[in-house]
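Field notebook, page 486. I keep forgetting to write these up properly, so this time I am using the form the group agreed on. The chain and the ligand, flavin-adenine dinucleotide, are recorded exactly as supplied. Prediction of the bound pose follows.
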Amino acid sequence: MTHYDLLIIGTGSGNSIVDERFDCLRVAIAEAGLFGGTCLNVGCIPTKMFVHTADLAAAAADSSAFGIRTSFGGADWPAIRDRVFGRIDPIEAGGREYRTNRQPNVTVYPEHVRFTGPKSFTTASGTEFTADRVVLAAGSRAQIPALPGIDTDRVDTPGYPVMTNDTVMRMSALPETMTIVGGGFIAAEFAHVFSALGVDVTVLVRGEGLLTAADATVTERFTRAFSAHHRVHLGTQIRQAEVSADGVRLQLEASGRVPDSPVPDDITTDVVLLATGRVPNIDGLGLDAAGIDVVAGRVAVDDHQRVLSDGAPLPGVFALGDISSPHLLKHVANHEARIVQANLLADIAAGAPGAAPDSALETTNHRAVPAAVFSRPQVASVGATEDAVRASGAEYTVKIQEYADVAYGWALEDTTGFVKIIADRSTRQILGAHLMGDEASMIVQPLIQAMAFGLPADRMAREQYWIHPALPEAVENALLGLEFTD
Ligand SMILES: Cc1cc2nc3c(=O)[nH]c(=O)nc-3n(C[C@H](O)[C@H](O)[C@H](O)COP(=O)(O)OP(=O)(O)OC[C@H]3O[C@@H](n4cnc5c(N)ncnc54)[C@H](O)[C@@H]3O)c2cc1C
Ligand SMILES: NC(=O)c1ccc[n+]([C@@H]2O[C@H](COP(=O)([O-])OP(=O)(O)OC[C@H]3O[C@@H](n4cnc5c(N)ncnc54)[C@H](O)[C@@H]3O)[C@@H](O)[C@H]2O)c1
């Protein structure tokens, strides 16, 4: 039976681990799907390439406030789609080819792999092998809810008009109508993309708002601003779907989560897009065979990314990214991959799996994890929500600075954007920041930096220049509006 020094399951962030420092090891890499994983192929990167296109289309369609006459003349979907995947697909193929053919010490198994014992594995086609050390980087997949009338096994299969992010970006033609189920990140981003490109989009949200995990000000104001550009039915769910050659007929009903919400009439739609959350790929991995702990549906890890078995680190087994992380974000998966890489090297240097002392291991940093939603409008956040800060009992100060009250906001004719900053009243440390509006994902960065390095809010405001009249003046003014105890 073939034996490896290291097995990596999943080529999203897991693929970044093996560099020249692993040349002296026999490495196996398993990938059941597309090389490069979710972010490259069906997640962050293609979606943001579509979002930029959608931003251009929306700006062209809606410029009257600036005294110019532009219009959106229509979308050439094959050109839009092929620009995106013409760049991405060669990267997938190149990564696969490099690992498969150009690295003598690496064996690629292009198929599903699972544990058969603590250090033994089998592939879907029956090849068995063993490995001393393992990295679980198997990610997550779209959660497909049971919806009456929708055949969950046929979702994302050719010709079936019910899709997830895995297939919706590769449609052969733009549909005339699309119904999106969900009110989170993915629903918010795809609703913007497809409606800006001319699709008649309806968003079904079972709760009373979108982005409900965000700070309450964001939830409330994003739901309002998003609803101004998109048809949104809150408190609504699918009672029955009928899939036919003409599309999908949806009978709707109140979800019961929003008092007195009106139930919309039945709708007929060309395509249903499910955007109802993601689940870690823990099933089918044979985790029981290795005694691996699962907590809250995720592989349990300690703060050195060591996988736990009965609460103790399993020697030589690490996990990273969506399969084990509380944050389903690529920058977090990448950070955790760097921790795993460092700790694997320490473990290898120590001579036996699990031999490295804790003091030789690097520690994951999940403080001040930022995120952005690339929708219309854009949202960005870092740190705690105001509700969480209040619940912690901290004495805090909060300031909401409207984009409309800074000069660049006038240039943008912005009426909805804002920067909200929450800080500790006595230490002056920033506890959370929540932004909505143009370039929110960019102008949040100095706040992320301040939180990461512990820069007090008043020093951040006053001890640097802020370019006038650029949009970060909204951040500056929010900082200046915080009130501290002296
Ligand atoms: C539509 C969408 C948009 C997103 N946009 C953003 C964004 O803008 N910014 C951001 O930070 N995050 C974004 N994310 C989240 C981000 O994509 C993920 O957090 C990140 O890709 C997770 O990386 P990973 O390495 O943990 O897993 P993945 O990239 O999912 O890689 C796991 C790989 O493991 C393979 N695999 C699974 N099980 C097995 C097995 N048993 N054997 C062999 N192979 C297996 C899978 O095929 C997959 O390729 C987005 C996600 C989606 C779905
Ligand atoms: N820009 C980004 O960073 C980005 C973009 C996309 C996705 N992501 C990551 O991927 C994760 C998954 O995104 P998502 O939008 O699928 O999840 P989400 O958790 O953000 O939102 C899921 C939505 O689906 C709803 N929902 C869940 N089950 C449902 C059901 N049975 N019926 C109807 N509605 C249901 C929820 O109420 C919620 O509104 C995000 O949490 C995020 O971490 C990040």
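OBSERVATIONS:
- Residues 43 and 247 are 25 Å apart (CA to CA).
- Residues 145, 181-187, 189, 206-207, 237, 275-278, 328-329, 371-374 surround nicotinamide-adenine-dinucleotide (ligand 2) (CB under 6 Å).
FOLLOW-UP: compare against the apo run.
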